[in-house]
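Exercise 3.2. Students should predict the tertiary structure of the chain below and write it as C-alpha coordinates, then compare their answer with the key that follows.

Predict this chain's 3D structure.
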Amino acid sequence: MLGAGAIVPSVLTLSSGAAIAAASSTHCLNTAAGTPPQRFTGSQDKWFRAQVYDGKATGKSAHCVTTPQTTCTDGNGGGQPGSIWVKDDGSRMMAGPGNDVKNVTSAPKSYGLVYVDQQGTVNTLDPNGNPALSYASIACYNSVLGTRISKLG
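Answer key:
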Protein backbone atom coordinates (compact mmCIF):
# COMPACT_ATOMS: atom_id res chain seq x y z
CA MET A 1 0.00 0.00 0.00
CA LEU A 2 1.23 3.48 -0.89
CA GLY A 3 1.20 6.22 1.70
CA ALA A 4 -0.06 9.70 1.02
CA GLY A 5 2.43 11.65 -1.05
CA ALA A 6 4.13 8.55 -2.45
CA ILE A 7 5.64 8.99 -5.88
CA VAL A 8 4.25 6.65 -8.48
CA PRO A 9 6.35 6.21 -11.61
CA SER A 10 4.51 7.10 -14.78
CA VAL A 11 5.12 6.90 -18.51
CA LEU A 12 3.92 9.77 -20.62
CA THR A 13 3.29 9.19 -24.31
CA LEU A 14 2.05 11.31 -27.16
CA SER A 15 -1.53 10.76 -28.10
CA SER A 16 -1.77 8.74 -31.30
CA GLY A 17 -2.65 11.82 -33.36
CA ALA A 18 0.27 13.81 -31.96
CA ALA A 19 2.64 10.88 -32.55
CA ILE A 20 1.54 10.61 -36.17
CA ALA A 21 1.92 14.37 -36.66
CA ALA A 22 5.41 14.36 -35.14
CA ALA A 23 6.50 11.44 -37.32
CA SER A 24 4.98 12.82 -40.51
CA SER A 25 6.46 16.29 -40.05
CA THR A 26 9.97 14.89 -40.35
CA HIS A 27 9.07 13.23 -43.66
CA CYS A 28 7.39 16.18 -45.40
CA LEU A 29 10.59 17.95 -46.43
CA ASN A 30 11.48 17.83 -50.13
CA THR A 31 8.56 15.58 -51.00
CA ALA A 32 8.20 16.70 -54.61
CA ALA A 33 8.84 13.59 -56.68
CA GLY A 34 9.02 15.56 -59.91
CA THR A 35 10.68 18.83 -60.81
CA PRO A 36 11.83 20.90 -57.82
CA PRO A 37 10.28 24.34 -57.37
CA GLN A 38 11.87 27.35 -59.02
CA ARG A 39 14.62 28.62 -56.69
CA PHE A 40 13.73 32.32 -57.08
CA THR A 41 10.31 33.78 -57.88
CA GLY A 42 8.74 37.21 -58.12
CA SER A 43 6.02 36.39 -55.60
CA GLN A 44 5.32 34.15 -52.63
CA ASP A 45 3.89 30.70 -53.34
CA LYS A 46 3.33 27.50 -51.32
CA TRP A 47 7.06 27.03 -50.64
CA PHE A 48 8.86 28.43 -47.60
CA ARG A 49 10.72 31.48 -48.99
CA ALA A 50 12.43 34.67 -47.87
CA GLN A 51 12.76 37.93 -49.77
CA VAL A 52 16.14 38.53 -51.40
CA TYR A 53 18.01 41.33 -53.12
CA ASP A 54 18.35 41.13 -56.90
CA GLY A 55 21.14 42.38 -59.15
CA LYS A 56 23.04 41.65 -62.36
CA ALA A 57 26.27 39.69 -62.68
CA THR A 58 27.94 39.15 -66.05
CA GLY A 59 24.70 40.23 -67.71
CA LYS A 60 22.57 37.65 -65.89
CA SER A 61 20.03 38.17 -63.15
CA ALA A 62 21.46 37.26 -59.76
CA HIS A 63 19.96 36.87 -56.29
CA CYS A 64 21.75 37.36 -52.98
CA VAL A 65 21.71 34.33 -50.66
CA THR A 66 23.77 35.89 -47.86
CA THR A 67 22.16 36.17 -44.44
CA PRO A 68 21.34 38.68 -43.18
CA GLN A 69 20.18 40.27 -46.40
CA THR A 70 21.30 43.73 -45.21
CA THR A 71 24.88 42.64 -45.98
CA CYS A 72 24.10 42.06 -49.68
CA THR A 73 24.36 45.64 -50.89
CA ASP A 74 27.11 48.21 -50.65
CA GLY A 75 24.54 51.03 -50.58
CA ASN A 76 25.64 52.34 -53.98
CA GLY A 77 23.81 49.88 -56.25
CA GLY A 78 26.47 47.18 -56.06
CA GLY A 79 26.87 43.88 -54.28
CA GLN A 80 28.79 44.04 -51.01
CA PRO A 81 32.20 42.35 -51.44
CA GLY A 82 32.01 38.89 -49.83
CA SER A 83 28.26 38.50 -50.33
CA ILE A 84 27.13 35.31 -52.10
CA TRP A 85 24.93 35.47 -55.20
CA VAL A 86 23.22 32.81 -57.33
CA LYS A 87 22.69 33.61 -61.00
CA ASP A 88 19.65 32.48 -62.95
CA ASP A 89 21.78 29.79 -64.60
CA GLY A 90 22.32 28.28 -61.11
CA SER A 91 25.97 29.26 -60.78
CA ARG A 92 27.10 30.59 -57.40
CA MET A 93 29.54 33.48 -56.98
CA MET A 94 31.05 35.75 -54.34
CA ALA A 95 30.86 39.47 -55.06
CA GLY A 96 34.22 41.20 -55.16
CA PRO A 97 36.91 42.47 -57.51
CA GLY A 98 36.39 40.80 -60.89
CA ASN A 99 32.98 39.47 -59.76
CA ASP A 100 30.92 42.62 -59.76
CA VAL A 101 27.22 42.57 -58.98
CA LYS A 102 25.53 45.68 -60.34
CA ASN A 103 22.06 47.23 -60.37
CA VAL A 104 21.26 45.79 -56.93
CA THR A 105 17.69 46.56 -55.93
CA SER A 106 17.22 49.09 -53.13
CA ALA A 107 15.18 46.55 -51.13
CA PRO A 108 14.63 42.77 -51.34
CA LYS A 109 12.30 42.08 -54.29
CA SER A 110 12.39 38.38 -55.23
CA TYR A 111 11.61 35.35 -53.08
CA GLY A 112 14.25 32.64 -52.63
CA LEU A 113 13.71 29.09 -51.40
CA VAL A 114 14.76 28.58 -47.81
CA TYR A 115 16.50 25.27 -47.15
CA VAL A 116 15.96 23.62 -43.76
CA ASP A 117 17.07 20.54 -41.84
CA GLN A 118 14.73 17.87 -40.44
CA GLN A 119 14.49 19.58 -37.05
CA GLY A 120 13.94 23.10 -38.37
CA THR A 121 17.07 24.30 -36.53
CA VAL A 122 18.92 25.30 -39.71
CA ASN A 123 17.39 27.59 -42.28
CA THR A 124 19.39 29.16 -45.07
CA LEU A 125 19.05 30.59 -48.55
CA ASP A 126 22.37 28.95 -49.47
CA PRO A 127 22.51 25.18 -48.91
CA ASN A 128 25.81 25.08 -50.86
CA GLY A 129 25.37 21.39 -51.69
CA ASN A 130 24.57 20.22 -48.14
CA PRO A 131 22.41 17.08 -48.64
CA ALA A 132 20.98 17.39 -45.09
CA LEU A 133 19.15 20.56 -46.15
CA SER A 134 16.07 20.63 -48.35
CA TYR A 135 13.26 22.95 -49.35
CA ALA A 136 9.85 22.65 -47.73
CA SER A 137 6.33 23.88 -48.23
CA ILE A 138 5.16 26.55 -45.80
CA ALA A 139 2.78 24.05 -44.17
CA CYS A 140 5.56 21.48 -43.78
CA TYR A 141 7.99 24.02 -42.35
CA ASN A 142 5.39 25.21 -39.86
CA SER A 143 4.75 21.63 -38.71
CA VAL A 144 8.49 20.98 -38.29
CA LEU A 145 9.21 24.32 -36.69
CA GLY A 146 6.35 24.44 -34.22
CA THR A 147 6.86 27.60 -32.20
CA ARG A 148 10.46 28.40 -33.19
CA ILE A 149 11.19 31.71 -34.90
CA SER A 150 13.22 32.01 -38.12
CA LYS A 151 16.40 34.05 -37.75
CA LEU A 152 16.67 34.98 -41.42
CA GLY A 153 17.30 38.70 -41.85
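Discussion points: Residues 4-26 have pLDDT under 50 and may be disordered. Residues 16-25 form the longest helix (10 residues).
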